[in-house]
Write a structure and sequence with these properties.
By secondary structure, the chain is mainly beta. Helices cover 11% and strands 41% of the residues. The radius of gyration is 17 Å and the shape is elongated. Pfam families: Pyridox_ox_2 (PF12900).
């Protein structure tokens, strides 16, 4: 996992500088699912893990996140893990999503550390990728949220009364891709 934020590190093993990942500064422009990053992302390096899966670098993780509009937010609810589907928009260096005044919003108010996972799997071919990011949630001030709401290229997964915007500032990325089908012998 690679650190990519100015918030305090989750682990002392995360060593990249908080302002840069592979020399790329993360700004605050929202990206639609089919939109490329305005800042050129660094060239992806190909590394493979012990299972033969390609290890994705932070730039590729961010690029793949921007190709989807729905993922799974993993947070703590009543001291137990909880997983909720969430539509989102990619903000370079983070994710933005809307929620009601519920457990997810309270997690943001507390600044909880959460995980967010997105994937694209072709079950017939046995190919695909997954990206998991970890970071801290924070509510977006209503005055700052107002101009962001129309920019969000997604609709809510479930009906939401009064929407509250939440930002997940990404502190680490973990992505894997199975780009070719393993030999079946």
């Amino acid at each position: 996992m690679t650190k990519a934020s100015s918030t305090p590190p989750l682990s002392s093993t995360l060593t990249d500088s908080p302002e840069h990942v592979d020399g790329n500064e993360f700004g605050s422009a929202l990206l639609a699912p089919d939109q490329e990053a305005a800042t050129p992302l660094p060239e992806a390096r190909t590394e493979v893990d012990a299972n033969g899966l390609e290890i994705l670098d932070p730039a590729e993780c961010l690029r793949l996140l921007a190709t989807r509009a729905m993922g799974r937010l993993v947070f703590t609810r009543d001291a137990l893990p909880a997983v909720r589907l969430a539509t989102f928009a990619v903000e370079q260096g983070g994710l933005i999503f809307a929620t009601a005044d519920d457990d997810r919003y309270r997690a943001a108010e507390r600044g909880d550390v959460v995980a967010f996972e997105v994937d694209d799997i072709d079950e017939d071919e046995g190919l695909g990728w997954r990206v998991t990011v970890v970071g801290r949630l924070a509510p977006i001030d209503p005055e700052q949220a107002a101009p962001l709401i129309p920019l969000l290229p997604v609709r809510a997964w479930a009906p939401i009364g009064e929407r509250q915007l939440v930002r997940l500032t990404i502190e680490s990325y973990d992505g894997r891709r199975l780009a070719s089908r393993p030999d079946e012998t």
